[in-house]
Design goal:
The chain is α/β, with parallel strands linked by helices and 475 residues long. It has five helices and 22 strands. β12, α5 and β13 form a beta-alpha-beta unit.
């Protein structure tokens, strides 16, 4: 329901449909003056659309004589801005309380402690002084009781030292915010395939919560859905066009504005960079930030690219520079020209700076390019001279995309991926000439890297690998 006073004729702000109609949505009742014996509970049902022809309602009431937390954990914990020496833990409670995090080498050895006495319902605790590439178990609480953790499910690994060549495992999803069976299937497929492998980091490519990115929509589409991954893996996001409220979006996420995770200080949460091992990740804002060559984002990107010495450079934002899916990058009026702007203005700078791989969402499909360089116009201007490697990039196919030097090199080619298939698929011509493969299939992307080798694969909602390729650099 919307905020404010709710009357009999107030329309619902969202709807429950499809497979969700067969699911119970849990609501806990606190401080309700129930009495011994018979009690009367009244329930109202509100339609989103007064012209709707049907309505369904079922209610199950479960009582308990157990003492419930008066603080009440309603969101989290979840992890933000993971570095080699620090981690931010966040959660939300029903009532204001102090914030206490205990951490240590085992669930029963939580010897470290960080406490914030100021009471709040939004809790944000920074743990500092940690060892790199180390597992820490933790619990969160209010000083009087533990709200979550202190068990084998609540832990995280700190990042490796910047530049280290150890293994990296990342999960990437785009346009996943449908909060329905599609998004759940994509998530379950990933969880099953990864098995016991720890997810080092997790990228969200925007449109994380439909339809408008409200706080309630984020609760359903992110916090209720990914409840097993959020307490263990740092989540890094870029803003999509359905994250319409900057206040809500930036209120949920923490971004490294001061280069605390590597890279160059951006001074804003809209765009930023961070290092994980020998990969430099760059997040740009294609939605609401000045996209001109004279803007601050362009100037910051230039400085950031010049400063990094990492083996691989991976960039991501929401609006794809190339797509022929549910959106068309050739149409200047599609998405307010954002796709055109990112292609014409930012790709030349990124390719000159040595970018290897770029992710975007927005178009509800999967598209993956050849190793290409120098294509900044519409699709009818693409030609074979822009293809650095015409192969499929598969180790068991035409062979990996090989780049001659382990150091970043200007205009040596990059692979472009549209992964807006995390929650729905919407068709399209799927015929952009820069693409090696285009699929109208639900799924997500797994990125793994070690040393001078990076492997990328598309995992569909059934758990089948539908695409894979490898980029190697030097010997």
């Amino acid at each position: 329901m919307p905020a404010g006073v709710v009357r009999f004729n107030t329309r619902a702000s969202g709807k429950v449909g499809g497979s969700e109609e067969n699911q119970f949505h849990l609501h806990e009742l606190f401080d309700v003056p129930l009495r011994t014996g018979r009690n009367l509970i009244a329930v109202e049902i509100h339609q989103e659309n007064p012209g709707s022809s049907d309505i369904r309602f079922d209610l199950k009431l479960t009582g308990s004589d157990q003492k419930l937390s008066q603080v009440g954990l309603v969101r989290g914990p979840y992890l933000q801005v993971g570095t080699a020496s620090s981690m931010i833990l966040r959660w939300r409670t029903r009532r204001p309380s102090s914030s206490v995090v205990r951490y240590g080498a085992a669930p029963d050895q939580l010897k470290g402690k960080v406490e914030i006495e100021e009471k709040s319902i939004e809790h944000e605790v920074l743990i500092k002084g940690l060892k790199s590439r180390t597992r820490y178990f933790y619990s969160i609480g209010d000083g009087e009781e533990v709200l979550a953790g202190g068990d084998s499910d609540h832990f995280f690994f700190t990042s490796p030292q910047s530049g280290s060549n150890g293994p990296v495992h990342a999960w990437i999803i785009g346009d996943s915010g449908t909060a329905n069976a599609n998004a759940k299937a994509v998530y379950n497929a990933y969880i099953k395939v990864k098995g016991d492998r720890y997810t080092d980091l997790w990228l969200m490519l925007g449109d994380n919560a439909y339809n408008s990115g409200t706080d309630k929509e984020y609760q359903r589409a992110v916090f209720d859905l990914y409840d097993n991954l959020l307490p263990q893996t740092p989540l890094w996001s870029t803003r999509g066009n359905h994250e319409r409220s900057a206040e809500v979006y930036y209120g949920i996420f923490n971004m490294p504005t001061d280069a605390q995770a590597g890279g160059v200080k951006s001074g804003t949460e809209a765009y930023y960079s961070f290092d994980y091992g020998n990969i430099h990740f760059i997040c740009l804002d294609s939605y609401d930030t000045d996209r001109s060559a004279s803007g601050d984002m362009f100037k910051w990107l230039k400085a950031d690219l010049e400063a990094t010495a990492q083996t691989f450079i991976v960039a991501y934002w929401h609006h794809p520079p190339y797509t022929k899916g549910s959106h068309d990058s050739d149409r200047d009026n599609d998405s307010g020209g954002r796709m055109r702007d990112m292609r014409e203005t930012f790709l030349p700078l990124l390719e000159k700076g040595g970018v290897d791989l770029l992710f975007a969402g927005h178009s509800h499909c999967y598209e993956r390019s050849y190793l290409i360089n120098g294509h900044y116009g519409k699709s009818d201007t693409f030609n074979n001279s822009m293809i650095v490697n015409k192969g499929d990039g598969k180790p068991r196919g035409d062979g990996p995309y090989e780049k001659p030097s382990p150091d970043k090199g200007a205009n040596k080619g990059a692979v472009y991926i549209v992964a807006g298939n995390g929650g729905k698929i919407s068709g399209g011509k799927l015929n952009h000439p820069a693409m090696y493969l285009s699929l109208n299939e639900l799924g997500s992307v797994i990125l793994e890297a070690e040393g001078n080798c990076m492997d990328v694969r598309l995992l569909d909602y059934r758990g089948q690998v539908r695409d894979n390729f490898r980029i190697t650099k030097g010997d």
